[in-house]
Prior knowledge:
Elements: H1 2-10, E1 30-31, H2 38-42, E2 49-50, H3 57-60, H4 62-73, E3 86-89, H5 93-110, E4 119-123, E5 133-135, E6 150-154, E7 161-162, E8 165-178, E9 181-193, H6 209-212, H7 216-219, H8 229-232, E10 239-241, H9 242-253, H10 255-272
Parallel strand pairs: 1-2
Antiparallel strand pairs: 3-6, 4-5, 4-6, 7-8, 8-9, 9-10
Helix pairs in contact: 9-10
Protein name: Tubulin polyglutamylase TTLL13
Keywords: ATP-binding, Ligase, Nucleotide-binding
Organism: Lygus hesperus
Amino acid sequence: MHAVTRAVYQLYLEQYHQDTCNINRCDWNIAWIDRYGMNFLRTLQKHQKINYIPGIELLSKKKNFVRIVHYLTSRLQHHYAFVPLSWDLPRMYREFVQYHTVMSDMESTSSQDAQKPTYIVKPGASCQGSGIYLIQNPKDLRTRHPSTSIVVSKYIDNPLLIQNFKFDLRIYVLVTSSNPPRIYVFEEGLARFCTQTYEFPCASNLQSIYAHLTNYTINKTNRAGCGGEKKSQNTDNFKWSLSQLNEYLVAEYGARVCAGVWDRIHVIIVSTV
């Protein structure tokens, strides 16, 4: 919020606090708000801007995103194959159990050494890794209360690893218009690493959050990770810039493969927006 305040002063705008200004009546230009309603949006004038794209919660809330993906995959399945199978619970609990039953039967008949299917469970509207855990059976769900919305996804158990560590990408995308679509992708970003080496999920390591979850908020608490307590205090050990990641990918796989990866990422961004 400090950056927003500085920008206000640089633009020579006068700042009003919410407790001294009725946002529905004041003659204002920019509003930084946490919540809004449709009635408020209908009152906006051309000279007034807010810090939200109306409807963005359809993408930012996991439960809403899953519902949209289900709708799209029913019509454009091949275009959204990059999204793991997911279920919005409790609404889709029956479908989830049916899928698990079919997959378990297939695994048990194909080979005695077949791996059990693994799922990642996330709160429907949360962040920073809060409440996330792994299961291999619907019976292991921690809650089935109808008022509790959770998202269950098929766990990607064969991720690309760097030095045996799992990682994800934090890519910053700016959408300035939806009609016509206008999208900008920032060249820099973050690769966030786990702080414990990855192992294929099984009953004995499902609770190893530092090996399976890449959330920074979680991994910064692992004092024994990334080579010991001293190293774990240095975020450079489990955060890379995208420039560092690109250098690694080019060195390991070649420039053509690296460029192909980013081409696919750009397609995913456009498909998501």
